[in-house]
Amino acid sequence: MVDFVNKLYKNQALFYKVFLFILTAVLIVYLLPKGGKFKYEIPKGKPWQHESLYAPFDFAILKSDEELRLEREEIAANNIPYYEYDQDIADRVKNRALQEINEVFSDSILGNYRSIITNFVTSRLEEIYRYGLAQENEQMEPGDLIYLRKGNEAFEIPYKNVFKQGEIRDYINQKIYDANLDRFSNDLLEIFFNSVSPNMFYDNEFTERVLQSKLDNISYTRGNIEQGSRVIAKGEVVEGNKYDILRSLKAEYESQVWSKSNYNWIIVGYSALVAMALLMLLLFIQKYRPAIFENNVKITFIFFNIIFMVMLTTLVVNFDVNYVYVVPLCILPLSLKAFFDARLGMFTHVITVLLLGFIVPNSYEYMFLQIIAGIVTILTISELYKRANLFISVGQITLVYIISYFAFTIIQEGTIDDIKSEVFLTFLLGGLATLFVQPLIYIYEKIFGMVSDMSLLELSDTNSTLLKELSEKAPGTFHHSLNVANLAEAAANEINANAMLVRVGALYHDIGKMENPTYFTENQVSSVNSHDDLAPQESAQIIIDHVIRGIEIARKNNLPDRVIDFIRTHHGTSTVYYFFMKAKEIDSEINPDDFRYPGPIPFSKETAILMMCDSVEAASKSLKEPTSTLIDSFVEKIINKQMEEGQFLNSNITFKEIQMIKKILKRKLKNIYHLRVEYPE
């Protein structure tokens, strides 16, 4: 039992990776659509390369988007508007007109013509309000039809039969003339204009409701294909009606309700493909990025990004598939490049795009566009912390999307007439959404405890609280750190290491000297040496302790682990040689391990570079009269001694790179001491 527990403990990292692998696969399979997947791509405008295809079941032919659009436009154009007839207004107008007769005409005149005038006014109002009086509608033509609603009944009438307010004057004048009532013309016009008002109003709500009902009842299909009928023959061009039939077969196939047995097999198929894709990613990381593979936090970060992109794309597709390109998928390679490297970012991006091919329509077109965009992203952004680079890359990503979409549309349609301008807007929105990568990287740093180049840039600011404290308490150490940072950055650039990381590491590598600054020669301003009254062992322990103190200060100030690594390893397991030799003069049997730094030795190119630069820069201060030859031999001696002690065995640095670093250090030191080439005497 104990052996089993020990074995379980030793392999807990592996068990975690297996658990993470299974969890990621399950989540992705859960998010994938569970319908059947049509096994053929439909190459519009190209010959059918597969065997002749026969209908596996009965299905209806779907109308194309263009057909549906034209049908909707036709229904909207032919839709008859509804007008509401208000009988109460008509009755009030008639009553008001009768009152106006008594008010306008005097009793003497009205006595002889009461019957004639009353009949004239009443008859005219009945004619005006027979179909209703409306305000002029400029959108209606005289020949158009309308529905007139009286109560619960609706009548279809020509719009020309309806009286409009603008027609009242001419109509009344004509009727007055016909009735030989010209001498009463002004009074009669006054009666009508004081009485009449529109009683027929356009019912927009009811009209729209009827229109929507008609649109909802549009049939999305035209005709049927019976089981066993040939859908398309091999070599036949996929266009027109054939394309619509194939598209209809694909839609029907993927929307069918599957039996429990079929559903389970679909799950098995998806699980196998997703697991295979994720396994390829893990194997790639294990083979080419073993340091990342051993770090469970980093593996979790990579898998989290994949799940995040799959989930985001699924949500957008379920909301509206037309917005699928708004998802800023290029954030994935950008984030991974910021924390790791371009190659891992690109490989993960390709795996993620392959998985998303199960979710999106037109998967080949989608995968082509996204992979090309990912390549452009990786190639164009070399330094993410420079804002100009990110904006330029966003513009290039958007341009790639637009050019690719333009090319695919020409290939599929054979014309540019079918290009949809709104698609360009989704590309632009997707490109702009990529700018969110900077705040997202900051969030990732806080959640996963990693560090990006943007954070390194902030840490390299010498006005930061910690570096200002170092410059005040230990100005000599601060000056030494700046010199080491310049040397290390130049060396890192020479061998294509992370120059920003090694510079930051160099700036902070000696912060532990703030505890006892006068015990380090670069901070001693007088001839009094603080070590004169101490035993060699005590002096050596104070020197060694600056590494431990530096780690404590770094953790207290929340410096990233990648920076703390430089503090921990910049002396490796070397000895405090000066005090060791001093102690040896007293006791020849002294144990050298008492004067040895705790380590560990450098485990990356960057930490190895810092060790070399730190030793060379510190020792160069002891040169009395430096010459070009002296500096060459001096650099060779120090770095060769470190190599003999095995300080670089774990740092994955080659002999060639070490030679290149030596060359850089020699040149830089000669520049520092303003040396010229020595001429022979």
Automatic annotation (TrEMBL):
Pfam families: 7TM-7TMR_HD, 7TMR-HDED, HD. Residues 477-619 form the HD domain. SUPFAM superfamilies: HD-domain/PDEase-like. Keywords: Membrane, Receptor, Transmembrane, Transmembrane helix. The chain crosses the membrane at residues 14-32, 263-285, 297-317, 344-360, 366-385, 390-411, 423-444. InterPro entries: HD/PDEase_dom, HD_domain, HDIG_dom, Metal-dep_PHydrolase_7TM_extra, Metal-dep_PHydrolase_7TM_intra, PgpH_phosphodiesterase. PANTHER family: CYCLIC-DI-AMP PHOSPHODIESTERASE PGPH. This is 7TM-receptor.
